[in-house]
Amino acid sequence: MPKVYHDELFSFSIEDQQLTTFIKMKVHPTFAYTDNFPQTYEVLKQYFPSVLLAKCFNRKRLPFAQEVKDTELGHLFEHLILENLYRIRLSQSVASPVYKGVTEWDWNREPRGTFNITLHAGFRDAEILPRAINKSVELLKKVISPISVADATHETPTDSHIGLPVDIVL
Length: 170
Description:
The chain has 170 residues and is an alpha+beta fold. The chain is built from 5 helices and 5 strands, in the order βββαααββαα. The chain has a 5-stranded antiparallel beta sheet with strand order 1-2-3-5-4, with helices on one face. A hairpin with a 3-residue loop joins β1 (3-6) and β2. α3 crosses α4. It is globular. The model is unreliable at 153-170 (pLDDT under 50).
């Protein structure tokens, strides 16, 4: 049975397998791209600068530090998780851990804002994956702040709390 996270900004389900982990992520279709959040680069630079140095294979062949300014939120989430996995393994004295991921979408077949993320992190990473995902959710929420959401959706900000405490247990 997949694990699920949901708040008003984005949701996802997680299905872990032996060698991979599959995440189906859904974001509000109005803000499926980071260009709706011009503070993305600065937030990452302040809170998680190492992710800006991550290798990224994209159609324009841009370094991730440049790609992050106008990429899909699912793609950003993938990179946040991969970098968190990498950093956690480094802190455990694992020499040169390698993590790969792919984010795919087809908005002709699925609703706009739906992303299919495959991480090459399976059962061997089961004990660290929840922590990597939790950290990634918190970072993504810093990028998508309430003011940013209001700007992106052209709504008035409210005093409501965005999101729920994140505690994903695999």
